[in-house]
User: Fold this.
Amino acid sequence: MPEPFVTIPCLDVHGVTRETRLALFRLVLLQRIAEERVMTLYRQGRIPGSVYTGRGQEAVAAAGGLALDPTDVIAPLNREMAAHFARGVTVGDVFRNYLGKADSPTRGRDGNMHFGMASKDVFPLVSMLGDLCPLIVGAALAFKRRGEARVALTFWGDGAFSVGDVHEGLNLAGVLHVPAVFVIQRNGYAYSTPTTRQMLNTSITERVRGGWSLPCEEVDGTDAIATYVAIRAAVERARNGEGPQAIEAVSMRMEGHAAHDAGNYMDQDEKRRYETERDPVERLAARLLLDGFSAAEVDSHRQAASDEVAAGLAEAELSPAPDPASLADGVYAQPL
Ligand SMILES: Cc1ncc(C[n+]2csc(CCOP(=O)(O)OP(=O)(O)O)c2C)c(N)n1
Assistant:
């Protein structure tokens, strides 16, 4: 018999409505199930790029996306599919992009999560790690200069935290006092390098506070509700003129770096223990039961998410492949 899920006491959850809890559950389920389907498609040779899942980190992606108002902007990285869904990107959009379809967000130029949607204020992913930091500082500066009560939020990992652009961005954000929120995912690894071999002080919170004099709060990134409460509060502080805010969300990458990496270098006992005790999807399901939702209600939400993923994939399968003659369209400037 597996151990029952442990419910670690989380932050005061007062004020997180029933609707918000269910919205978080839908988002973590959508990411978990959609990524499982993407992995299957990858193994079938149907994905032209590689696949980087956020298994184990779905709660942070969902919470970050849901914590924003519709007029805010977000810049997700490739492990934050749920943040896209929170902004209204559909499962069909994601599968169309993975399958390289003509009507996908990148019109078949990418077979991955490297896309944004201007209509939903989702910035496209920049592959150069760390570069989303100064990018959203720029967006937040624009909001401040225009007098708009909008916030810009981005995510990055512990590995990206070591990139110079992150520190230039954090410094600038503090000096310019802009409404930016930085969600730093400490998932234990940067590719095959454990966090303990990347930095002497593995507390990103201490480093952000001590190095850049910015507020930073550490949160259990496997607890969707606690993470939502922490990010939502940070977003509101930023919106209310309190300047940039950071959140260190602690979780674990439950797989290798990407579909081509089995992650054999990871501590397998730790991984198993994490899967049993800290899986964010199952922790939220257990929490909903404790909060009075019935098992049948929880199961019906699992089924609804599974149906939504199946419908999105079926819809994407029907989309046409790009016309090879259009290959250079939108890639090079048109001659005058
Ligand atoms: C500037 C830069 N250096 C190296 C890479 C290659 N690279 C892609 S992901 C990755 C590891 C990132 O680790 P982390 O920031 O902790 O995020 P995680 O993969 O754990 O989500 C590396 C080294 C890159 N994309 N950009």
About this structure: The chain has one domain: 18-319. Confidence is low (pLDDT under 50) at residues 1-12. The chain is about 45% helix and 10% strand.
